[in-house]
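Dear H.,

Thanks for agreeing to be a second pair of eyes. The structure we're designing against is below in token form, covering all 479 positions.
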């Protein structure tokens, strides 16, 4: 298929975006509607030539974009935010189809795109100046070049714009690689962006793992921003090391929530449930382990169970559901292993079914496992699905040690009426983002990244801009 200039946006045809142009491919694949198991629209698989052309166009566009005044870059980003918002309904419908998210949840993610851009446009590029009798030293930050964003399937829009906005603001060009499980909204967002940005400034190429590997090894790609699993993140870092690419890795988590004994049980228990089951548990920074003080354990668990029983699970078009399906069959099969293991070991299901009923979609009812042992699969691993364990605790030092006894460190929560005490517990948790009296709600106003094997570096917030820049220090000696 020959390239054609992007003009009108059709939300049922999808292309790679190379040098500002739509590009099809002889090879195609499909996303799957997780609510029905049916194939969705054709998506072109980018060839090696497509990919090389994309990098070449991004490299060519970089100097002029880097040298565009930052206020002009902000102006274009804000125009894009406005244009995107005009298509919010179409993006919401598309996101529901490819992800299975309930309409209200999808609408929140779509609305967040403009919010992310607007916040980043409020930031200034950092700089510093040191003066003494002999010299003036200017610390400035300059764009890296061509950046690659490898996007996961759980939040295909927010995690795309969370890379594109800071990259473009700081003067880089960006190539987006959407997940093959959820390619549609990411490709369409980048296609829409061609109406605002010069060719090559932001591009998109869809495909499989081979395409991600090409991004990590291409000598003209200066930076990889990857969100995904720990295992894949290690491969990205290893491959990127061959050309000393800058990398930001935001990887898996096994977040602990510590419930202090002074909480308002009826108020807090439903919130903790939301932290565990939002987006059907498919959140890297969701609550994965819940530690409840023994004096309130049974009452708190019962309130959690009561709330879980009110949660509606279903397809987006069925109406006011809180949860949708697991997004893809691979993850669905993985989550089922946690049910099978918990049943085989005789763990107590406080709510939920030990056996998952087959249906045409990948639906799983939210499930709580009551007090499994510390070495159980459900405690030690990240299910990335709607199943969560609870355990009682009595000694604060011991439960903090239990919360930290993991190779991950992405997020965590502490719940308690005594805020100072809760904050003192939060400061002892080994994770990048700790939430006091809230479930995990990362915000673009603060850097987001993990400790330990949950990642390297971070993005978002004023500090996160530096992930897309190199420091350059100019020492000026006085005559």
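And this is the sequence the design step returned. I haven't edited it by hand at all.
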């Amino acid at each position: 298929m020959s390239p054609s200039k992007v003009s009108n946006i059709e939300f049922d045809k999808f292309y790679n975006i190379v040098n500002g142009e739509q590009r099809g491919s002889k090879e195609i694949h499909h996303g799957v509607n997780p609510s029905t198991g049916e194939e969705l629209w054709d998506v072109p698989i980018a060839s090696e030539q497509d990919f090389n052309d994309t990098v070449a166009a991004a490299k060519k566009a970089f100097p002029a974009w880097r040298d565009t005044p930052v206020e002009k870059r902000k102006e274009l980003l804000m125009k894009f935010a406005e244009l995107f918002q005009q298509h919010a309904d179409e993006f919401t419908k598309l996101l529901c189809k490819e992800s299975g998210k309930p309409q209200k949840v999808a609408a929140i993610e779509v609305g967040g795109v403009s919010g992310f851009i607007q916040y980043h446009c409020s930031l200034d590029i950092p700089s510093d100046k040191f003066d003494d009798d002999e010299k003036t030293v200017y610390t400035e930050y300059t764009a890296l070049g061509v950046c690659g964003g490898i996007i996961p399937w759980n939040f295909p829009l927010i995690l795309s714009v969370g890379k594109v906005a800071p990259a473009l603001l700081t003067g880089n060009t960006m190539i987006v690689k959407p997940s093959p499980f959820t390619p549609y909204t990411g490709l369409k967002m980048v296609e829409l962006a061609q109406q605002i940005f010069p060719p090559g400034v932001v591009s998109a190429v869809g495909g499989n793992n081979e395409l991600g590997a090409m991004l990590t090894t291409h000598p003209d790609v200066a930076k990889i921003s990857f969100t995904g699993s720990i295992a894949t993140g290690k491969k990205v870092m290893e491959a990127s090391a061959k050309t000393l690419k800058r990398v930001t890795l935001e990887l898996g988590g096994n977040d602990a929530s510590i419930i202090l004994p002074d909480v308002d049980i009826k108020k807090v228990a439903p919130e903790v449930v939301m932290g565990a089951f939002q987006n059907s548990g498919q959140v890297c920074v969701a609550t994965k382990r819940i530690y409840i003080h023994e004096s309130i354990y049974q009452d708190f668990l019962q309130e959690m169970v009561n709330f879980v029983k009110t949660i509606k699970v279903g397809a987006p078009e069925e109406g006011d559901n809180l949860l949708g399906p697991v997004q893809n069959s691979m993850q669905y099969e993985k989550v089922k292993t946690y049910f099978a293991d918990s049943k085989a070991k005789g763990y107590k299901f406080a709510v939920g079914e030990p056996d998952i009923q087959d249906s045409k979609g990948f639906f799983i009812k939210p499930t709580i496992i009551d007090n499994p042992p510390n070495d159980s699969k459900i405690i030690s691993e990240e299910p990335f699905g709607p199943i969560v364990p609870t355990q009682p605790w009595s000694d604060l030092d011991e439960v903090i040690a239990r919360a930290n006894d993991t190779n991950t460190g992405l997020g965590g929560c502490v719940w308690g009426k005594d805020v100072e005490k809760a904050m003192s517990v939060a400061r002892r948790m080994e994770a990048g983002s700790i939430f006091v009296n809230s479930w995990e709600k990362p915000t673009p106003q603060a850097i987001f990244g993990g400790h330990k094997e949950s990642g390297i570096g971070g993005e978002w917030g004023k500090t996160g801009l530096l992930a897309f820049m190199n420091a350059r220090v100019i020492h000026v000696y006085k005559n």
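Two observations from my side: The mean pLDDT is 96. The first helix runs from residue 48 to 67.

Warmly,
E.
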